[in-house]
Amino acid sequence: MQKSVLNYLNQIVREKPDKMAYSDGTEGMTFREVYRYSRSIGSFLHEKGIYKKPIVVFMRKSPQEVTAFFGVIAGGCFYVPIDEEMPSGRIQLILDNVRSPLIICDEATADIAEKFQVEDCEIVLYDRMIQTPIDDGALDRIYRRAIDTDPIYIVFTSGSTGIPKGVAACHRSVIDYIEQLSEALHFNEDTVFGNQTPLYFDACLKELYPTLKFGATTYLIPRNLFSIPTALVEYLNQHKINTVCWVVSALTMISAFGTFELVKPKYLHTVAFGSEVFPIKQFRLWRQALPEATFTNLYGPTEGTGMCCYYRVEREFQDGEAIPVGHPFPNREILLLTEEGKPAPEGQEGEICIRGTALTLGYYNDPVRTSEAFVQNPLNTAYPEVIYKTGDIGRYNEAGELVFVSRKDYQIKHMGHRIELGEVEVNVGMLPGIRMTACIYDAKRVKIVLYYVGDLSEKELTEALKGKLPRYMLPNKLIRLEQMPFTANGKIDRVTLKNQYEKKG
């Protein structure tokens, strides 16, 4: 029985020790190196008497950072990734929450780490830790004591109160996810991943762990390339990357600016996407550029360990039609519930709730918010059974496929009508010359504010929308941008847009 993700590493190092595992394009590490250095890190933690504790990994995105994750696990602990691009206030809140006894740094981050206020916490360089002699006996004893419900990581998501929430996942949920995702997307030893997300997001699970399972290779793409579409595609071609699992905005950033007219990804045969609705106009450009590739829509919250549902796109979609998120992976079930906790009637919307092994352990050191989101299944009163309330609204289409509609908090009441801001964005995005859109709502002034990137003037766009949207859904203010702001994860940064709007008054 597999009880730890390290089973993948222990097996693959015997089969493919000298194959490249992780690389940033200039520096890489083989499976043998990953194995050796991770066991040195685990031995260092054992020497320090640190066990079953959260260990902060504060390093620049690199193969070494990935190895540090595995080293923390080898030592019987769980990793907490943070990054220098995070605001310092957010980092401090994370450190206050986890109260880690040790922070692993590299030369670039050590001085930054020293500035934070953390009691009884040692800052240690990665390069020092990997010099530790490996204590095979101690590491084997740690492994034998492990069970699959032990935590593996804590990643932090945004909280509505401004306080980030630390989602703690266990080995079992990650193992199930990797096994099922790998089968659905047909990963194998020849898979070459192009990683898009920072390593402090759970989205990187899709690349890091299947690499261990199959002896594949992951390229950690430099983040600056995601603002240079042509250079990004050239990077994919240079390293013969054949599989990407990206957020939608990272894909549309390529297609929306005419990149395919200059260069196309020559080796890409598997494209998975998620986190946002893929505008059909942009999706068609990808299908046209890569007619032989497989496209799969993925859906799932961090609290559900990566992704819970998938849909392989095998038909054409009409303008304004949403690509379904499909059906849940095995050992997961989606419940569509009304506000009263009842099953949503057929054809009607409800909140997407998740049950099964996908569920994470809850929010670290945060029992109140854990109890609000991880609740007893209202359809089961016979025994304890936890489900996770995603806050997402969904419905089933005529084919019985789940379709994501919007966030509960992305729904507004305007001019006496209930409006999904996502619907406004979709309709604007269908217009010729429009590349990207984002809506916010100014509740104080009762205005729908539309930000967009495109060729149309504000006046031209206003006239075009009059024929597509009812009067009560028409944006009250249009703001044209040269470039849309993005979060570190590559999503459109609506918080920044809202803050900028409020500052201007």
Nutshell version of this structure?
The chain has 505 residues and is α/β, with parallel strands linked by helices.
Low-confidence stretches: none
Name given to the CATH homologous superfamily of the largest domain? ANL, N-terminal domain
Average pLDDT, all residues:
91
Gross morphology: globular
Sheet of most strands: 9 strands, mixed
**Structural class category:** alpha/beta
Q: For the CA atoms, what is the radius of gyration?
A: 23 Å
The CATH architecture of the largest domain is 3-Layer(aba) Sandwich
Level-1 CATH class name of the largest domain: Alpha Beta
Total number of domains: 3
| Annotated CATH topology of the largest domain | Rossmann fold
| Strand portion | 25-35%
Please describe what this structure looks like.
This protein is of the alpha/beta class and 505 residues long. It folds into three domains: 29-170, Rossmann fold; 221-406, Rossmann fold, CATH 3.40.50; 415-504, GMP Synthetase, Chain A, domain 3 (2-Layer Sandwich). 31% of the residues lie in helices and 26% in strands. The chain has 16 helices and 26 strands. The strands form six sheets. Strands 2-1-10-9-11-12-13-14-15 form a nine-stranded mixed beta sheet. Strands 16, 17, 19, 20 and 21 form a five-stranded antiparallel beta sheet that branches. A four-stranded parallel beta sheet has the order 4-3-5-6, with helices on both faces. The chain is globular and about 70 Å long. 45% of the residues are buried. The model has no long low-confidence stretch (mean pLDDT 91).
